[in-house]
Amino acid sequence: MRYRFNEFEFDSKSLILTKAGDSVAIRHNEAKLLALLLEQADKVLSKEEILSLVWQGKVVSEQAVFQNISHLRNLFGNQAIKTFPKRGYQWQLQTEALPVATTHSQAKNTANDPIITTESDKNITLPSASTTTLNKAKNYWAYLLTACTVLLFIVLFSFEDKSQKGSSQPLKKMAYIPLSHAQVSDSFPLADTEYFDFTELSNITTDEFNNTLELTYPELAQTHPLILTAELRRHNQQHYIDFLVKGPSGEWRGQLSADSTTKVMNKLQKHLQQDVIYDLLNTAQTPEIKQANLSIAHQKSPNDLIILGALIDVYIMMNELEKAMVMADKLANISEQQGNWQHLGNALLFQSKVLTRKELYDLSSHKLTTAISYFEQIGDLKRQADAWYAHSWLDHQEDDYPAIKDSLLTSARLSLEAKDIPRELDALTYLSILAYKHSEADDKYLYLQRAEKKMRSYQLPIYHFAKVPFHYAFFAKTTSDKEPHWKQVLEYTKLTPDHWVSQASRKALMGHFIKQNRLTEANALLGHTNTDNAQNSYLKALIAQASNDDEQFNHHAQRTFEQARLAGETRLSLDVALLLCSEPNTQINYDFYSLYIQDNANKYWRQDNKEKLLALNF
Fold first, then answer.
1. Are 270 and 181 found together in one domain?
2. Has residue 385 got a pLDDT over 80?
3. Alpha-carbon torsion, ordered 346, 284, 566, 321, to 10 deg
4. Contact 4, 21 (CB under 8 A)
5. Is 444 within a domain?
6. Count of structural domains, the chain
7. Is residue 67 part of a domain?
8. Is the pLDDT of residue 83 over 70?
9. CA–CA separation, 16 vs 8, rounded Å?
10. Of 258, 284, 310, which residue constitutes the final position of a domain?
């Protein structure tokens, strides 16, 4: 039997799945399970029935059912297969049964069957053999002439279409902030090319843009959704550029070098011609889709080390640590062959990050030390600061507060030398947090106050100051003591409600208000922002749960999961998956979310949610 649903067609006999006419890869057992679900779509199939009918006596665990159901949901959507708790699974998509197409062999057998004539058949005059041959010849030449005409039309149309595309290919429109050189007072304008339509934003500097990003970009993005900013510098006769392209759905960063400013600028424009960059900047993508797109881009441009670095970063985000390490080794090897110390240092930073995730702290520390030596050779202060910042976490694992302090103060000093205010403030505020964790009462206030003083001297926008009450809330002992500090954060971030400290404080306040049954105040928190993102959908789910509105809870919770997955916010996607599994009155794909938790939860998230996981027997 053949079945059609959405854009798919499935032949339950041959187990072939197609989408819009193209073949879709599907494992044999998944195909057998799909056939079973479609053939018995009016029935709820238990795990035992599925194991018996699909695996037919083979000894496999129930996990095999969960995994195959999960894979089918990934193909067709979560709503395709519904879980009935303690009963089983049922197909849900509207499906059309199609007649089985007549095969070539069937047609041949029919032609060889004996001919049965009736009285009415006797008056039919059959054509002679010579007439049939002549007609076939005429038809052959007619078909050949038609085919040639069609082929000629296709060739001409394709040539015309390609020439039109070559001449009218849309330019990549990009605004840029004047590029300045650290050692030279002149700026470097970008001229339009066959690939780019550049617009200079002459009323703002790179430092101003970086220091006010949360406020400035949303205003500029209304007319300039893609904004390029970069810093040029020279070290030992080599010219370096450190660039950022900001887009609606993300950022694209990288470093390039050459023996002249002209050459490094040409390298930048060549790198920015790649379409994958704009796909990532303009469209929200799940980590899996990012990984697929970057893998294709890496295959096309194997020597583009920025593309390779971005691919490693996505593997780490997906917790695919073995693949990340393989790619980081590849980045290190290519960089060493090219004598590119910038990207060799970057490769070592990636390796350190992977080793830290694996809790191989000594090896991670060695990689960081080596990375710092390469960054020192090329005078890259920012990456040195990043390496010392990362080292402070290794010091924390060793319970060595003096080393933590030294690492973070070094990071702050290097950031100051590089005139990178956000990096400097991050190092100081992080030192305040780690001082608190190590019961260094004086330092936790000292470095937070030092950061606040720096904010004032730099005349930063008010949202930067929100970190101060946010940290005071972290230091407070009771939730009631934390409440006024979280409220202060929201005051400071009225104009930037999607800043991470604002989102974190709003989430904490929401939980506090709901726990105290202060639902009016909890609802009022939703008025602080209108952005449709995962964080705000999660708050709506919490409100719906507290209000016993199952329908709204299901909607907002599943919306949160989709948005968090798309944004690569793994921790939030785990939070809402656990929330969905914990709610007994919801009609959800329990197995899908429980399997997601099993596959994606790291030890830190599990520690934070230990009691909830135990309650669910996870």
1. yes
2. yes
3. -20
4. no
5. no
6. 2
7. yes
8. yes
9. 11
10. 284
Domain edge (last residue) among 98, 123, 143: 98
The lowest-confidence range among 164-173, 184-193, 354-363 is: 164-173
Distance, in Å, from the CA atom of 313 to the CA atom of 332, rounded to the nearest integer, reads: 14
Mean pLDDT taken over the chain: 85
The confidence band for 72, taking pLDDT boundaries of 50, 70 and 90, is: confident
Report how far apart, in Å, the C-alpha atoms of 116 and of each of 120, 360, 549 are.
Answer: 12, 82, 70
The yes-or-no verdict on residue 539 having pLDDT over 90 is: yes
| Percent with pLDDT over 70 in the chain | 85
CA pair distance 420, 242, nearest whole angstrom: 12
Task: Give the type of residue at 329.
Answer: D
Domain of 254, in residue numbers:
172-284
| Residue 562 vs residues 566, 567, 568, 583: alpha-carbon distances, Å | 6, 9, 10, 18
Of the segments 189-203, 419-433, 580-594, which one has the largest average pLDDT value? 419-433
Lowest mean pLDDT of 46-60, 121-135, 227-241, name the range.
121-135
- Buried/exposed 309-326: b ≥16 CB within 10 Å, e otherwise: bbbbbbbbebebeebbbe
- Whether 586 and 550 have beta carbons less than 8 Å apart is answered as yes
Pairing between strand 96-98 and 2-5?
A: antiparallel
- The CATH number for 38's domain is 1.10.10.10
Q: What tokens were used for 148?
A: 């040639």
State whether 189 and 277 are in the same domain: yes
* H or E segment and range at residue 135: helix 129-168
For residue 233, being part of any structural domain is answered with yes
Instruction: Check whether residue 280 and residue 176 sit in a common domain.
Output: yes
CA dihedral (182, 184, 187, 191) positive or negative: negative
Mean pLDDT of 73-93: 84
pLDDT of residue 100: 59
Q: Would you say residue 436 lies in a domain?
A: no
Q: Is residue 272 within 8 Å of residue 297, measured between CB atoms?
A: no
Residue 101 · residue 606 · CB < 8 Å? no
- In DSSP terms, 82 is beta-bridged to 90
Q: What is the pLDDT of residue 374?
A: 97
Strands 172-176 vs 227-235: parallel, antiparallel or unpaired: parallel
Separation of alpha carbons 509 and 559, rounded Å: 21
Query: Can you give the CATH number for the domain in which 203 is found?
Result: 3.40.50
For residue range 482-513, list pLDDT tens digits in order: 999 999 999 999 999 999 999 999 999 999 99
Q: What is the mean pLDDT of residues 201-218?
A: 92
Do 91 and 176 lie in one domain? The reply is no
Q: How far, CA to CA in Å, does 551 sit from each of 84, 428, 545, 557? A: 17, 45, 9, 10
**Rounded to whole angstroms, how far apart are CA atoms 375 and 409?**
18
Locate the DSSP E strands across 323-444. Answer: none
Q: Supply 590's token pair.
A: 């329990």
How far is Cα 55 from Cα 49, in angstroms, rounded to an integer? 10
Instruction: Count Cβ neighbours within 10 Å for each residue of 460-475 and write b for 16 or more, e otherwise.
Output: bbebbbbbbbbbbbbb
Q: Is it the case that residue 124 has pLDDT exceeding 60? A: no
The H-or-E segment that residue 172 falls in is strand 172-176
**What's the CA angle centered on 329, arms 326 and 334, to 5 degrees?**
125
Residue 525: CB atoms within 10 A of its CB come to 19
